[in-house]
């Protein structure tokens, strides 16, 4: 039987916070990478239609990019969200979409302030987060029977990442290839391939990943703060042996 070339799964990756270790923002001293893992059939049949229906309802078309920062600050097409009631209703609807559509999440939070205190020459936070994320996605795929550990015949899994700039993208691709070529904890070969999407790409998966990254960071900064959206997101975290901590959710250091 011929091995299938492409996986049934697709991964969307988005970030919150800056990867820079210079002038760390005291209000958000984190880099968060959110990895949204979704079956392609469920993405096409459930995730994309749900996001489009939401856009049609609120904007009359589906060309608006749901960007967490713009929603939070009432910018651009979200300028109508200037009353608390309107914004809460809007956010509640998005939370319902996250709750209902099928996907799994790996969240990696790098505490840059703690990283700087612990190491004289700390590693690039984005590279650290990427490695932790890929290791956990690999574990998830193996748990689903999609991959086999140590196999060179695993179907290719594409990771869709938003472009950040030529130099940044080149550096990311180099690090990505290093990690996939046994530069990871178990020294496995990973059958991942990175796909760079334009910043204006109207990707439902990237937009949902973007909406989840900052809330996961805030749950680390302010764990005592009640947040329904975070509670819903956490129910999507990948679990291994019934545990999300350390698997679906990784915080370092």
Please explain how this structure is put together.
- This protein has 8 helices and 6 strands.
- The radius of gyration is 18 Å and the shape is globular.
- The model has no long low-confidence stretch (mean pLDDT 94).
- Helices cover 43% and strands 18% of the residues.
- Strand 4, helix 6 and strand 5 form a beta-alpha-beta unit.
- With 253 residues, the protein is an alpha/beta fold.
- Strands 5-4-1-2-3-6 form a 6-stranded mixed beta sheet, sandwiched between helices.
- The protein starts with 5 loop residues before the first strand and ends with a strand.
Unreliable spans are none
**Helix/strand-derived class?**
alpha/beta
End-to-end span in angstroms? Answer: 45 Å
Helix content: 40-55%
The DSSP helix count reads 8
Strand order of the largest sheet: 5-4-1-2-3-6
Integer average pLDDT? 94
Give helix and strand order, one letter per element, not per position. EEHHHEHHEHEHHE
Q: What composes the largest sheet?
A: 6 strands, mixed
Compute the gyration radius: what is it?
A: 18 Å
Strand content: 15-25%
Global outline: globular
Strand elements, count = 6
């Amino acid at each position: 039987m011929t091995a299938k070339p492409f996986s049934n799964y697709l991964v969307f990756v988005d970030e919150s916070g800056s990867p820079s270790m210079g002038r760390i923002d005291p209000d958000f001293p984190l880099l968060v990478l959110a990895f949204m893992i979704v079956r392609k059939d469920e993405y096409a049949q459930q995730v994309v239609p749900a996001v489009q229906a939401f856009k049609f309802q609120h904007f009359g078309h589906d060309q608006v990019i749901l960007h967490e920062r713009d929603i939070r600050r009432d910018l651009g097409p979200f300028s109508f969200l200037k009353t608390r009631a309107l914004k809460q209703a809007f956010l509640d609807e998005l939370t319902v979409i996250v709750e209902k559509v099928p996907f799994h999440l790996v969240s990696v939070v790098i505490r840059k302030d703690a990283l700087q205190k612990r190491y004289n020459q700390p590693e690039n936070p984005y590279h650290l987060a990427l490695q932790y994320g890929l290791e956990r996605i690999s574990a998830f795929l193996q748990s689903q029977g999609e991959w086999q550990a140590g196999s060179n015949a695993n179907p290719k899994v594409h990771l869709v990442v938003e472009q950040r700039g030529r130099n940044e993208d080149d550096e990311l691709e180099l690090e990505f290839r290093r990690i996939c070529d046994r530069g990871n904890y178990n020294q496995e070969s990973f059958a991942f391939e990175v796909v760079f999407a334009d910043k204006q790409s109207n990707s439902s998966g990237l937009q949902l990943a973007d909406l989840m990254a900052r809330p996961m960071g805030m749950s680390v900064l302010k764990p005592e703060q009640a947040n329904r959206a975070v509670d819903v997101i956490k129910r999507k975290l990948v679990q291994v042996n019934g545990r999300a901590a350390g698997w679906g959710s990784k915080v370092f250091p």
